[in-house]
Design a protein that fits this description.
This protein has about 170 residues and is mainly α. The chain contains 6 helices and no strands. Helix 2 crosses helix 3.
Amino acid sequence: MRMDSKRLEELLQRYWECETSLEEELELRNYFCNEPVPERWKEASTLFHYFEKQRQLMVRGNFEDSVVSKLKAPRGRMMTLVQISLRIAAGVAVVLAAIFFVRQEVRKDSTEMVFEDTYDDPKEALEETKKALLMISKGFGRAEAQARKINMLNEAQDKLKSKHNEETKKL
């Protein structure tokens, strides 16, 4: 099933805004899971492949009962909040300890360092600096591309959660 790029773009936009029908979502899933996908939609394809894989996982017979019982038990949710808070506090403590030790090392190293010029020619030093900054810039570019992928997945997950919460409220 081939889909023109304009239709695909429109469906994806509506999908990210949680405005597609079940039939349209099925159309998107079929396209991304069964067709060769152009490079610009590889990220969305990865997401749809993940959803398809998760959909195919076997669900236990009493799954619905266990989910409903967990939703009705506020004590379980409160325990989860306590656990999350403790984990966050532990993470903050580790980061603060790391910062303390790194600062100590930097202070110790800075008192021992003696700086010398490495280039006699300022133009040569400038060119080397440009090369180093270009290399760092390329690294940031790759990191930004990866962060965009993660952000795209997080946004999709947030939209799915909010849609699920709305549907739950309706029930």
